[in-house]
TrEMBL record, chain A:
Keywords: Chloroplast, Cytochrome c-type biogenesis, Membrane, Plastid, Thylakoid, Transmembrane, Transmembrane helix
Organism: Zingiber officinale
Topology relative to the membrane: Multi-pass membrane protein
Protein name (Swiss-Prot/TrEMBL): Cytochrome c biogenesis protein CcsA
Entries under NCBIfam families matching the protein: cytochr_II_ccsB
Gene Ontology CC terms, in alphabetical order: plasma membrane; thylakoid membrane
InterPro entries referenced in this protein's UniProt entry, alphabetically: Cyt_c_assembly, Cyt_c_biogenesis_CcsA, Cyt_c_biogenesis_CcsA/CcmC
Assembly and oligomerization: May interact with Ccs1.
HAMAP family: CytC_CcsA
TrEMBL record, chain B:
Annotated ResB-like domain residues: 122-383, 435-534
Keyword tags: Cytochrome c-type biogenesis, Membrane, Transmembrane, Transmembrane helix
Annotated TM spans: 114-140, 181-205, 268-289
Stored InterPro entries: Cyt_c_bgen_Ccs1/CcsB/ResB, ResB-like_domain
Main localization of the protein described in the UniProt heading: membrane
Any one GO biological process: cytochrome complex assembly
Localization of this protein: Membrane
Domain of life: Eukaryota
Name of the protein: ResB-like domain-containing protein
């Protein structure tokens, strides 16, 4: 009973804090007079992370097994992983815009998890025999961490594509927002770039506005590359742990089960992404790889949600009753 | 003799003051850098001091005369320098030469094929095609009878205007993951992997391994990252880079430093482990045995009788002559009545009746014995042991009634009265698991529920029935797979090399140009972090100030 109350409280706390964090981001974006606000949003993210982790721990204690046995728990874990990734990159103390992606993704996953659609799954369920293994922890947590990282990275790529292909980037002309962008994203790099440009006198000169755009896309490109590389590492470990587990439980390390197959497809797509990065043409490279990553974004969702929706194959433990609910309504 | 001014909080600088701050030559004084450099010296105080002592001598004794002499600040056994090819690089050159002669034939005959296969767009296209085929394999139902495809993909109404059952059956998409198209693509991808490793990756590493100094400021400025520090010494930069984990080489006014060479090697490892997994997978497919058996509790079977070979390399081994006896099969339940775990207590006997091993297996905990693995995969209800009006016990065979989904249902029938009459009547007994039996009377009405463990009698239409025992049967999967060790080795290597691949290989060049140090660097992965890191390190480089400037300040 006490755990149910605790869970409730923690869910609400995490959701409220993340909403406030989003509000802060919006405020800093539109108003730009940000004295202590970014700092407080950072603290908000950490508070969210702690309350989500608390939620998972309380579920762990109350159910007695690692809380990753159904979709609700995995969504909560996904938002937890998003905050973990946020913290990892924050600890590196890099100025980046990861927070804009992680915070909004967290609110989406958390919102979906706590929404009415999945109320039947809020109860923690018993573990079927096949799931009773130490590999559950390793495999599922790695997979969700990788999903979180890959989702972030591919969202950066989507952003990059949007910026690249929009003809008139009016945010760069709009006074206040322009100021904000210059301050937030590019300041401090200008000197360096100017210097570098002077080194290349004979290269084509970029117009001032396009120059900012170029810098922004380049930063986004690097950032998405790094985050996707991290996610790819996690994905590899997750899939291979799953294979070893399958060899323990079902007697075959690979059985072309739909979920497995889609995880492998995701792996291949991001492997392609990493290979497109090795091409020499810089601008073509970033656009191409961003296209691949955006494709990967869709494929992760198919892998994570689509297969569960169909409820087929050996990974149907986490499948949920959404289909029947939709049909009934 | 000028004095040495040191920032008071840089205690370690003072501690290791056998430093080459030989102010006698240049009459320069080390003032404070903006940030404390203590950390750097703290990291490897001994290494830096040793190397500096080694280096300090030529510096002070004869500066320009010894310009030819190479000074290495770090590392014990240096690979040949690119500048000194003629001398030191003698063995470095001999090796590729030998390789060229032994591989010459292959290179000539395979050069074209290699060039085609190592083409990156081709490899990417292969990967895309494989991904698409796998996606198709999950969309098209696999392993159905041809009739199913005739109905689902009819010729009259083709999907997307062209996709009919002819496509499915002719290309083997009804068994996608063993179809020739798919396997052929995998083989092609494996060839591309090998070709790419050989023609692209290994030469890249060879280039990266070479220590190359850059002697012109222009070449350094052309790097991805370039900066120049006025009033700085390249040697100070060397210590600071060393403290940050770089391997630093210094020769006269030029500096070369690198970090994370493993990040260059790791992609080769990734490719090799992928190949290893593919080889292991092939061996698994060609050389394994698989069998599955349902055994009632108390009975036994011989391993070899159940095993079916999977491929042409499947050869039975001596261990197939092992007899497996199911001592006991039982289940654990949650309080809610759902099954929490299945257990089979198995004994393995040799054919002459000697017990070899005994283990209670469960899901996720198989029995491994001389290459054979026995998994707990399924269960069934074999028989119900009852006594009727005190007679018996009789064993009633249970029949599976409903097998769809996870829920199983077993049933049996005990005739009452004349068993030979055309409309025989009797008592029906149904069970979902081994725990409780539901009994129905002759009319089909519910009569009661009994647990086999309770031994509680039940009277139905004048017949007294006691349920003595429920005998389950265990569903076992047996397997031998010679590919597993290779695949696992590949898995381990792949995990490790993918992790290492995350790190990037960074190279930094610097050149002392008067009092200015020109710095350029590049990295293959973490470009943003590299820029930040180097900027941070450059902030730590102490500024050299001449004595009169210092007095003015």
């Amino acid at each position: 009973m006490i755990f149910t109350i605790l869970e409730h409280i923690l869910t609400h706390i995490s959701f409220s804090i993340i909403s406030i964090v989003i509000m802060i981001y919006l405020m800093t974006f539109f108003v730009h007079e940000s004295v202590g606000l970014p700092d407080s949003s950072e603290k908000g993210m950490i508070a969210t992370f702690l309350s989500i982790t608390g939620l998972l721990v309380s579920r762990w204690i109350s159910s007695g097994h690692f809380p990753l046995s159904n979709l609700y728990e995995s969504l909560i874990f996904l938002s937890c992983s998003l905050s973990i990734i946020h913290t990892i990159y924050k600890m590196g103390n890099h100025k980046n815009y990861l927070n804009t992606i992680t915070a909004s993704s967290t609110i989406f996953t958390q919102g979906f998890a706590t929404s009415g659609l999945l109320t039947e799954m809020h109860q923690s369920v018993i573990l079927v025999p096949a799931l009773q293994s130490q590999w559950l922890m390793m495999h599922v947590s790695m997979m969700l961490l990788s999903y979180a990282a890959l989702l972030c990275g591919s969202l950066f790529s989507v952003a990059l594509l949007v910026i690249t292909f929009r003809k008139n980037i009016n945010i760069f002309c709009n006074g206040k927002v322009k100021n904000f962008l210059i301050k937030k994203f590019i300041f401090g790099k200008i000197n360096y770039w100017n210097e570098k440009r002077s080194a290349y006198k004979n290269t084509s000169f970029l117009s001032f506005r396009n120059y900012y755009k170029y810098q922004l896309t380049q930063r986004l490109d690097y950032l998405s590359y790094r985050v996707i590389s991290l996610g790819f590492t996690f994905l590899t470990i997750g899939i291979l742990c799953g294979a070893v587990w399958a060899n323990e439980a079902w007697g075959s390390y690979w059985s072309w089960d739909p979920k497995e197959t889609w995880a492998f497809i995701t792996w291949i797509i991001f492997a392609i992404y990493l290979h497109t990065r090795t091409s020499t043409n810089q601008s073509l490279q970033s656009t191409n790889s961003a296209l691949v990553a955006s494709m990967g974004f869709l494929i992760i969702w198919i892998c994570y949600f689509g297969i569960n929706l169909l409820g087929i194959g050996l990974h149907s433990y986490g499948s949920f009753t959404l289909t029947s609910k939709i049909l009934n309504n | 003799m000028s004095s040495l001014l040191l920032n008071p909080h840089k205690a370690l600088f003072t501690a290791s003051s056998s430093f080459p701050l030989r102010s006698d030559v240049n009459a320069q004084i080390l003032v404070a850098s903006r940030r404390a450099a203590t950390r750097i010296v703290d990291c490897r105080p001994r290494a830096s001091r040793d190397s500096f002592e080694a280096e300090a001598l030529p510096e002070t004794n004869a500066k320009k005369k010894n310009a030819n002499r190479k000074i290495i600040l770090f590392g014990s056994s240096p690979p040949p320098l690119s500048e000194e090819r003629s001398g030191a690089a003698g063995n470095g050159r001999g090796k590729p030469g030998r390789e060229a002669s032994s591989w010459g034939f292959f290179q000539k005959s395979l050069k074209r094929a290699l060039a085609v296969l190592s083409n990156l767009p081709l490899a990417i296209a292969e990967m895309f095609t494989i991904a698409a085929l796998m996606a198709l394999g999950t969309v098209i139902d696999q392993g159905e009878a041809p009739d199913y495809y005739f109905q689902k993909y009819p010729e009259e109404n083709p999907m997307f205007g062209f996709f009919t059952w002819r496509w499915v059956l002719n290309l083997g998409f009804d068994h996608m993951f063993t179809s020739p198209v798919f396997l052929g693509l995998l083989i092609l991808l494996a060839c591309s992997l090998m070709a790419c490793t050989y023609t692209t990756q290994i030469p890249l590493v060879k280039v990266a391994r070479r220590w190359s100094f850059k002697h012109s400021a222009e070449a350094i400025r052309r790097q991805d990252f370039a900066d120049s520090l006025p009033k700085a010494s390249v040697k100070d930069l060397g210590i600071i880079l060393m403290g940050a984990g770089y391997e630093v080489f210094l020769k006269g006014p030029s500096l070369y430093a690198f970090k994370g060479m493993a990040g260059r090697f790791a992609p080769i490892g990734v490719h090799i482990s992928m190949l290893l997994i593919m080889v292991g997978g092939t061996l698994s497919a060609a050389g394994s045995f698989h069998g599955s058996v349902t055994v009632p509790q108390g009975l036994n079977f011989v391993v070899g009788d159940t095993m079916n070979p999977n491929g042409f390399l499947s050869f039975p081994t001596q261990s197939f002559n092992t007899e497996v006896h199911v001592n006991r099969f039982y289940m654990d339940y949650y309080d809610s009545g759902e099954v929490s775990q299945f257990y089979s207590d198995l004994s393995l006997f040799s054919l002459d009746g000697k017990e070899l091993t005994r283990k209670t297996i469960r899901v996720n905990d198989p029995l491994r014995f001389r290459g054979i693995t026995i998994y707990q995969t399924d269960w069934g209800f074999s028989a119900l042991q009852i006594t009727k009006n005190g007679e018996g016990p009789f064993n009633l065979a249970m029949a599976p009634l409903q097998m769809n989904g996870e829920k199983k249902l077993f049933g049996t029938f005990l005739p009452t009265g004349d068993a030979d009459s055309p409309n025989v009547k009797g008592i029906s007994m149904l069970a979902r698991d081994l725990q409780s039996i539901v009994l129905y009377d002759q009319e089909g009405k519910f009569a009661g529920v009994r647990r086999p463990s309770s031994k509680l009698p039940i009277d139905i239409d004048g017949t007294r029935i006691v349920i003595e025992d429920a005998i389950g049967s265990t569903g076992l999967d047996l397997k031998t797979d010679p590919g597993v060790p290779i695949v696992y080795a590949g898995f381990g290597a792949l995990m490790l090399t993918t992790c290492i691949s995350y790190f990037s290989h960074s190279q930094i060049w610097a050149l002392q140009d008067g009092t200015t140090v020109v710095i350029g660097g590049k990295t293959n992965r973490a470009k943003l972090e590299f820029r930040d890191e180097v900027n941070g390190l450059l902030d730590e480089v102490p500024e050299l100030v001449t004595i009169d400037q210092n007095l003015n300040g």
